[in-house]
Amino acid sequence: MHISITDRNKLLNKDLRELCERRLDFALSRFESSIKKIDLVIVDENGPRGGVDKACRICISLHRASDVVINEKAEDVATCVSGIAERASRTVARALERTQQFDRTQKEVHESI
Questions:
Q1: Domain count along the chain
Q2: Residue 34 is part of which domain span?
Q3: Source organism's superkingdom (predicted)?
Q4: Rounded to whole angstroms, what are the CA distances from 107 to 6, 78, 100, 113?
Q5: Nearest alpha-carbon partner for 69 in 82, 81, 87, 83
Q6: β-sheet with 68-74: strand ranges across
Q7: What pLDDT, in 10s, does the model give residues 7-39?
């Protein structure tokens, strides 16, 4: 599973980059066979002024389903990445479940013919 991380404002040091990869790998590894690629973009919207301004955007390309795009904001990068990883796991599970339900109904129709 290839994870591409883009840091627009140079917020990530080595430890934070490893945390991002570890959290996304842990949250999405069970879907590895269904995922083409993962793009994570991290931005500091307000610059050095502080506040709830660290934004993460993840785009997950799936093989048999439409892309999953999720946005998250938090005060620090670690919280933002943890939240987006959790939401991404639930969203990918729902997207793949919808595809499997569709596949089952198609098989049942073909079997009865």
A1: 1
A2: 3-112
A3: Bacteria
A4: 41, 43, 11, 10
A5: 87
A6: 3-7, 35-44, 54-62, 68-74
A7: 988 889 999 999 999 999 999 999 999 999 999
Read off the tokens for 77.
Answer: 């990068």
Q: Which residue has the tokens 């904001």?
A: 73
CB of 5 within 8 A of CB of 38? no
> Is the separation of the CB atoms in 58 and 40 below 8 Å?
yes
Instruction: Identify the CATH number of the domain in which residue 91 sits.
Output: 3.30.160.100
What confidence score (pLDDT) does residue 78 get? 94
8 A C-beta contact, residue 34 and residue 62: yes
What is this structure's pTM? 0.82
Instruction: Work out the pLDDT band at 108, boundaries 50, 70, 90.
Output: low
Handedness of CA 109, 67, 74, 26 (dihedral sign): positive
- Tell me the per-residue pLDDT of 57-93, one tens digit each, with 9 for 90 and over: 999 999 988 999 999 999 889 999 999 999 999 999 9
CB atoms within 10 A of CB 84: 26
The pLDDT assigned to 53 comes to: 85
